[in-house]
């Protein structure tokens, strides 16, 4: 590989234009290149002595879309590819061309278990209770999210609707923004974004907060941009997923949705069980009856 094609050369050419904090991240990469390849975003930020958003700004300044793309480039550059020339790394999960199909179910299950254990460590019980109370007392609830978070938004909206709550989620980000502009003080807005930097989701939650609604963010990073516009932030693992990120972040987010759903039910058990029974009866004819 030519020197001008390496990460080190790229950092050196961009170094003068970096901010002071970003230069600290750059220095750490240059001195610990091999170690960085195996580090999560949070670990890299901690060891280099900067914040996670600073790391994101640093890799963006180098021309990468995010830390995932930056780390993948490092791995490729240092010859960590398999024979086919690729290596896919998810949450503690490496995939190579030599993997056997029969081992995938067990490995995925073990990976999810580890991730959920980390997920629990990142959730503040006090924040969780405040989020549940806010949702229960809301006049109206709106949910914002795009791309991979869309399925999570839909799941949360469906669950809250089943409980008889006034809840809405539009896939169209334009509609999300318009609806956010019509919220009021007794309403609740929930923004779901793994990175916390999705433009449409952040802007919708920012608009909702401007309108006086109580705002909630479900994200992976405590210090992400969306957190600035949230009254309450629920974080998942705080880990960075290098590849295949559609799988594991969604799993963590769906678990948080289930926590909120059950939390709402427990907060006023009789009320919400009646709503569930009523709505289940309304759709009973939609399922074939067993003998």
Describe the structure.
- The chain is of the alpha/beta class.
- Helix content is 52%, strand content 10%.
- Strands 4-3-5-6-7 form a 5-stranded parallel beta sheet, with helices on both faces. The chain has a two-stranded antiparallel sheet with strand order 1-2.
- Helix 11 links the parallel strand 5 (188-193) and strand 6.
- Helix 2 crosses helix 4 and helix 9 packs parallel to helix 12.
- The longest helix has 20 residues, at 248-267.
Strand arrangement within the widest β-sheet reads 4-3-5-6-7
C-alpha geometry: globular
Based on CA atoms alone, the radius of gyration comes out at: 22 Å
Distance between the termini: 68 Å
Assembly state here?
Answer: single chain
- Identify low-pLDDT runs: 80-92, 241-246
- What's the β-strand tally? 7
- What is the average of the pLDDT values? 84
Output the helix-strand order.
Answer: HHHHHHEEHHEHEHEHEEHH
Structural class: alpha/beta
- Strand percentage lies at 5-15%
Alpha plus pi helix count: 13
Helical content band = 40-55%
Quick one: biggest sheet?
Answer: 5 strands, parallel
Describe, in short, the structure shown.
The chain is α/β, with parallel strands linked by helices and 291 residues long. The chain is 52% helix and 10% strand.
């Amino acid at each position: 590989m030519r020197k001008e094609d390496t990460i080190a050369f790229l950092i050196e050419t961009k170094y003068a234009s970096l901010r002071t904090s970003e230069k600290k991240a750059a220095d750490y990469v240059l001195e610990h290149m091999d170690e960085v390849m195996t580090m999560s975003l949070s670990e890299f930020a901690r060891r280099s002595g900067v914040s996670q958003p600073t790391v994101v700004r640093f890799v963006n300044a180098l021309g990468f879309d995010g830390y995932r793309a930056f780390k993948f480039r490092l791995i490729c550059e240092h010859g960590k590819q398999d024979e086919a020339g690729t290596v896919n790394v998810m949450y503690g999960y490496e995939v190579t061309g030599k993997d056997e199909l029969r081992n995938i179910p067990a490995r995925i299950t073990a990976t999810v278990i580890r991730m959920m254990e980390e997920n629990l460590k990142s959730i503040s019980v006090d924040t969780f209770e405040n989020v549940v109370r806010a949702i229960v007392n809301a006049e109206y609830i709106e949910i914002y999210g795009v791309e991979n978070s869309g399925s999570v938004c839909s799941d949360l909206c469906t669950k809250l609707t089943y409980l008889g709550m006034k809840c809405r989620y539009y896939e169209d980000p334009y509609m999300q923004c318009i609806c956010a502009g019509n919220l009021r003080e007794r309403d609740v807005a929930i923004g779901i974004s793994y990175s916390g930097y999705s433009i449409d989701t952040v802007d919708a939650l920012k608009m909702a907060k401007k309108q006086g609604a109580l705002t909630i963010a479900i994200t992976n990073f405590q210090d992400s941009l969306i957190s600035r516009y949230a009254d309450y932030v629920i974080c998942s693992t705080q880990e960075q997923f290098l590849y295949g990120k559609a799988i594991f972040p969604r799993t963590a987010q769906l678990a948080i949705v289930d926590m909120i759903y059950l939390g709402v039910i427990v907060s006023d058990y009789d009320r919400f069980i009646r709503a569930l029974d009523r709505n289940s009866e309304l759709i009973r004819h939609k399922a074939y009856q067993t003998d």
